[in-house]
Structure formats: C-alpha cells, structure tokens
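Recall the central idea of this unit: under ordinary conditions, the amino acid sequence of a chain determines the structure it adopts. In this exercise we apply that idea directly, starting from the sequence alone.
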Amino acid sequence: MTANEFFDELRALNQHNIGSWPMWAYAGAVVILSALIIGLGTWYVLIPKSEELTQVISQEQTLRDEFERKQKKVANLDAYKQQLAEMQDTFGALLRQLPSQTEVPNLLNDISQTRLASGLEEELFKPRPEIKKDFYAILPNDLVVTGSYHELGNFVSGVAALPRIVTLDNVNITPVNSKDGGDELRMSVIANTYRYLDEDEVSE
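Accordingly, the structure predicted from this sequence is:
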C-alpha cells in the first residue's frame, strides 16, 4: 500500500460506523486514544499526586525529627530537673554572698579592717553612688592606700578571702616619692561591693 492509498483509506473511514473500519485503523485508533487517556491522566492526576506525595514524605521526615528531639528532651527531663535544682542551689549560695542594705556598712568596715591588718596607710576611701542592675546593686568605692608590695599583696588576698563578694577594678600602682628612698607604693583602686535589691526596689 502506497502512502497515497493509505491516506485515501484514512479519509474514507466513516466516523459514525467504527465497526466497519479495517483492523489496522481500529487498532491505531485504540492506541491513539489510550495514549491520550494515559497522557491526560498523567498530567492532571499522577503529577499533582506525585508532588503531593513528595511534600507528605518531606513533612513526615520533619515530624519524625521533631518527635526524636522531643523524645530526647523527655528522656533527659529528670537530668534537666536535677541540673536546675543544682543551679538554684548555686545561685542561692551566690545570692547569700550579696549583703542586704543593712549589712553594707559592716562589709565596708571589713574592707577597712583588712587594710589595717595588711599594714597599709589609707589616703582616700570615698563611696560612689550605687549602680542598680536587674536584681542587685553595685556600690563602688574609690580607695587609695600606700604600703609595700608585700602589704598590697596581703590586702588583695584578704579582700578576696572575705565572705562577701568584693571586686577590685581599675587598679593602678605607682611608686611613692619618699625622701628615704624606700620601696613604698601607692595603689589606687575601685573596690566594688554588691548588695541584692529588695522586691520593692526591683519592681521600681
């Protein structure tokens, strides 16, 4: 069969009487129709469902990861509670090292006694205005003392050994010009003491 004969027979097919078609035309129509149905089904059904399935799989993995994280947290809950209790005990111990407002004069007296015990001479002891923080206040004090290197070391060690928290900032040590040529030194320092704020002060 030539190409012209094939196209002539194809044009002669009766669309209203498919049963009269030759086998090759009938089979070709079935193949074309099947391919069309499969193509439309793939485009409108399978592809959207495939994308939805991919999203569901990704979401499932995310939920699995989140579940594993939460499961680990639950498994470690007792350990976290124990750590929290230990932190609260430690915080309480540190907080007890901060004096109340009524104890601050005694703490300042302890610093002066430490200076005397170290053999230092006091040139200046001047409290600055306190600085309020979240739950505590800093009470800086300008302090200038003179003495030997050994005496200065004893003073710093004595302050560090006080039961209350005291920090020494802006330390500046210079030699004292003396006529006898001794080894006396002058130390200028800011001695910071701390106190915790009462509830009414925190709420201000």
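The first helix runs from residue 3 to 12.
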